[in-house]
Hints:
By secondary structure, the chain is of the alpha+beta class. The protein has a domain at about 120-235: Glucose Permease (Domain IIA), CATH 2.70.70. It contains three helices and 13 strands, in the order αααβββββββββββββ. The chain has helices at about 1-45, 60-75, 80-85; strands at about 130-135, 135-140, 145-150, 150-155, 160, 165-175, 180-185, 190-195, 195, 205, 210-215, 220-230, 230-235. Strands 1, 4, 6, 7, 8, 10, 12 and 13 form an eight-stranded antiparallel beta sheet that branches. Strands 5-11-9 form a three-stranded antiparallel beta sheet, with no helix packed on it. A two-stranded antiparallel ribbon has the order 2-3. Strand 6 (about 165-175) and strand 7 form a beta hairpin. The protein is elongated, with a radius of gyration of 53 Å.
Amino acid sequence: MNxxxxxxxxxxxxxxxxxxRRVLVGIIIGISLLVGIGxxxxxxxxxxxxxxxxxxxxxxxxxxxxxxxxxEVIADLYPWVLEGPVTKTVVVEPPVYVPSPTEYRxxxxxEEEALPVLSFEAINWPVEGEIVTPxxxxxxxxxxxxxxxxxxELAVAGEAVHSVLPGEVVSVSSNGFETELVIDHGxxxxxxxxxxxxISVVPGERVEQNQVVAKPENSGIVFFGLTHxxxxxxxxxxxx
Length: 240
């Protein structure tokens, strides 16, 4: 019995010593962890950045650098500029002209003569003859397709083509097959005479109403068109 008590006491002492060692080891491990965490936080703690010192640059230094760069670019890309002599130019403001009290007052420039006001009450026919193809859509007698006639095709009985209104000749042109004459009558109105020859007027010339401006082609068919602001108008609405 005594032996059992003795063994039990020794076992209890051993167990207490082991518990004390475990507690001590735990304390040491805990302190080590705390120290390690503290060292890591200290190492990762942001430090104040050193202030960057900027050396001030004067305007003259910047101008010198820019000048050197410009000369380098010119010498590299445009060497021919540096080959010729350099001439400095000075811009001088023109003197202000002050007229003398004794000078005569300049006469105003003459204004361009305006075209007369149009009157469609007495518009004349461009030729003597009959209408072969009226204004508008029609079926071509040979090809059979529908075409738009922007004026009148007239079978001429005489040998003269007249201006239907007073105006100014705009153009005389040819496409290789027929010649075209265009007269501007002002207010957006113009007349066209096609398939004509022996034109007796030139661009820029003023013409009077019922003035002979050309002759019909040998075919005897003359086209006459009337437009307002570039859009074709039925001439039959004005011819009398």
